[in-house]
Design goal:
The protein is α/β, with parallel strands linked by helices and 324 residues long. The chain has helices at 12-23, 30-41, 56-67, 82-86, 120-123, 127-132, 167-170, 184-194, 209-220, 226-241, 251-267, 275-286, 294-298, 303-313, and strands at 46-49, 71-75, 87-92, 97-102, 109-113, 134-137, 140-143, 149-154, 175-177, 245-247, 291-292. Strand 3 (87-92) and strand 4 form a beta hairpin. The N and C termini lie close together (6 Å).
């Protein structure tokens, strides 16, 4: 593979335009915006665990408007039914036929707000959509729109009436991260921006969905050296052998981490993945996939600590080892 011929990726400037467009609404959160774009480019989904009011909804709305994409918001509540998410067939008395009414999941970008406040049955309605890009309703499988991206949120401080996401569902999210509070200067900037008018109203598309689909295909062409693949496998395997972990990362984690690394390299304007790309993304891609032992929890060991240890223990391959 001649890397020099793959250094310039056609859509990379468009991605930077999207990031800057979203930054006009969400102040000081460039890394979080970029992580969301990496997930979208690689066909993954994001779980945000953060307190209310830090800009989760504004970020995903701004991304949708920057793409000119159809955006839907699902407010998860204890009484929400699976059909409220996927859609339902309704009998039309005039035509004497059943007609399908699509649910909010039938959109390009979906905000699943407070996903842990609904029952496991309704949570599972998203499983097929997250993994397969389709939903099965009344025995019929319906494909979702392309592109399709879900950003789910959950509140870490409210435990009453919540249903923790099972490991099977957590594993279907590419990244999990928090936005966090802004700094004093950033919060002052927010106040100045919304004093007269909310900046979300001024966001206009900077690219199209068709161009995004092209960029997703370009990401698949980003070269991943065999040495980098071995590094990914070593990290994931090490998570399964760590003394503090009772359930390590799955093979799906290896696949998604590789695809995310391709998207990250693409955003950097490179046609090949570096080991440092994997190392940077690993905490966001692996932490939520680890189930700790009871002893580890008693000693206040966290999944973040475990992943940090893995990154220090597993040898990072050097450029000399990578083939051309």
């Amino acid at each position: 593979m001649d890397r020099d011929k793959r250094d310039v990726m056609v859509g990379q400037p468009l991605i930077q335009n999207i990031v800057e467009n979203v930054e006009s609404v969400v102040v000081g959160k460039r890394r979080e915006i970029e992580l969301s774009m990496i997930a979208m480019l690689s066909g993954g989904h994001v779980l945000l665990e953060d307190v209310p009011g830090v800009g989760k909804t504004m970020m995903v709305r701004a991304i949708a408007k920057s793409l000119g994409a159809e955006f839907k918001r699902i407010q998860f509540t204890p009484d929400l039914l699976p059909s409220d998410v996927t859609g339902v067939s309704v009998f039309n008395q005039k035509s004497m036929e059943f007609q399908f009414r699509p649910g909010p999941v039938m959109a390009n970008i979906v905000l699943a707000d407070e996903i842990n406040r609904t029952s496991p049955k309704t949570q599972s309605a998203l499983l097929e959509a997250l993994e397969e890009g389709s939903v099965t309703i009344d025995g019929e499988t319906r494909n979702l729109q392309d592109p399709f991206f879900v950003l789910a949120t959950q509140n870490p401080i409210e435990y009453g009436g919540t249903y923790p996401l099972p490991e099977a569902q957590l594993d279907r999210f590419l990244f999990k991260f928090a936005i966090g509070y802004p700094s004093d200067i950033e919060e002052l900037d927010v106040l100045n921006r919304v004093e007269k008018r909310h900046p979300i109203e001024e966001v206009t598309p900077v690219t199209t969905l068709d161009e995004l689909v092209v960029m997703q295909r370009e990401v698949l062409d980003v070269y991943v050296d065999e040495i980098v693949k071995r590094y990914i496998v070593s990290l994931v395997n090490a998570s399964r052998k760590h003394a503090a972990v009772s359930l390590g990362a799955s093979p799906r984690a290896s696949i998604m981490l590789m695809k995310a690394s391709q998207a990250y390299a693409y955003m950097q304007g490179r046609g090949y993945v570096l080991p440092d790309d994997v190392k940077f993304l690993a905490p966001y891609a692996l932490t939520h996939r680890l189930l700790l032992t009871s002893d580890a929890k008693l000693t206040n060991t966290t999944a973040e600590t475990v992943v940090s240890e893995l990154l220090n223990q597993v040898v990072v391959p050097t450029g000399k080892e990578m083939t051309r």
